[in-house]
């Protein structure tokens, strides 16, 4: 059985972790499957948005415990240190591939999002959680540190002291608390339905503007102000008067939904 399933409709791709008997625990096969799916979607010019979810009782319970043995008894230096995807290794690319995707990615969380699962969710642009969902930076429980891109993404979501607390304690955070501290975007009774709804709204917007906004927001969190201002102007210049923007203007003037090529 494939570790990841993908369905597409109306420009929205639904990507689902597909190891329900293990609460979608992450093994090496799932890591490679997730990266392959993200790379395939990145090449799809018709893609408008992605919804990321988990099959069964949970979004993702974290790294498969069986993998710990192979790491501890193997060659961690040779397995972890080589850079396979630019500045990242394959474990980091598991989550950062979604951040690099040119369209918005919305994670629908339920059950638990622990360790690798939380870092995967943090690589998305938004996180919608079911009431009672548990989230945790779980690595300290196993004498480890987050190493799947979490130290790039999590500092953008929570304050430094909060990140220290949840990293050092490995405590489980309920969705309601996660919303308060910034780990999740919103809570919904049916997070998958809400994520699909949001993806549908986004898919109705100018595709070139949506992609430009994702690029721009990424720069806004990582670059100095002068570079952000320059990129604002560049992205806007590249949108004004182009087909997508002209269609938005025409649709607004005619009181109809825009139709993009």
TrEMBL record:
Database matches in Gene3D superfamilies: 2-enoyl-CoA Hydratase, Chain A, domain 1, Lyase 2-enoyl-coa Hydratase, Chain A, domain 2
UniProt feature coiled coil, ranges: none
Biological pathway: Lipid metabolism; fatty acid beta-oxidation
Assigned keywords, A-Z: Fatty acid metabolism, Isomerase, Lipid metabolism
InterPro entries per UniProt: ClpP/crotonase-like_dom_sf (IPR029045), Ech1-like (IPR045002), Enoyl-CoA_hydra/iso (IPR001753), Enoyl-CoA_hydra_C (IPR014748)
SUPFAM superfamilies per the UniProt record, alphabetical: ClpP/crotonase
One example of a Gene Ontology biological process annotation: fatty acid beta-oxidation
A Pfam entry, by short name: ECH_1
Record NCBIfam families: PRK07509.1
Protein's name in the database: Enoyl-CoA hydratase/carnithine racemase
Organism: Rhodobacter maris
Organismal lineage: Bacteria, Pseudomonadati, Pseudomonadota, Alphaproteobacteria, Rhodobacterales
